[in-house]
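Researcher: Quick test of sequence recovery. Tokens follow.
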């Protein structure tokens, strides 16, 4: 695998969307290519920072509107989208 292919597929790799062989190919390339490995490490760190810092929640009114649309379409998990329907305090 060359650098262009590894760079192109790194997001699929991070999202777990690649086949076993493609994941293996990217890991192999990263162990042999320090510049690509450095870019990969940056992407991993960036994702960790974003996931730890971005904790905003949708406003209750938006959540209610989404739940109503889900209910209209027969979604069985629509209750989970209602703020009132939540049984935990993790909002």
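Model:
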């Amino acid at each position: 695998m060359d650098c262009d292919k590894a760079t192109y597929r790194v997001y699929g790799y991070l999202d777990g969307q690649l086949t076993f062989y493609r994941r293996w190919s990217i890991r192999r390339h990263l162990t042999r290519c320090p510049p690509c490995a450095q870019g990969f490490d940056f992407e991993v760190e960036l994702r960790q920072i974003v996931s730890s810092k971005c904790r905003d929640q949708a406003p209750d009114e938006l959540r209610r509107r989404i739940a109503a649309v889900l209910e209209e379409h027969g979604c069985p998990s629509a209750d989970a989208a209602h703020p009132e329907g939540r049984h935990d305090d993790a909002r």
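Residues 85-91 have pLDDT under 50 and may be disordered.
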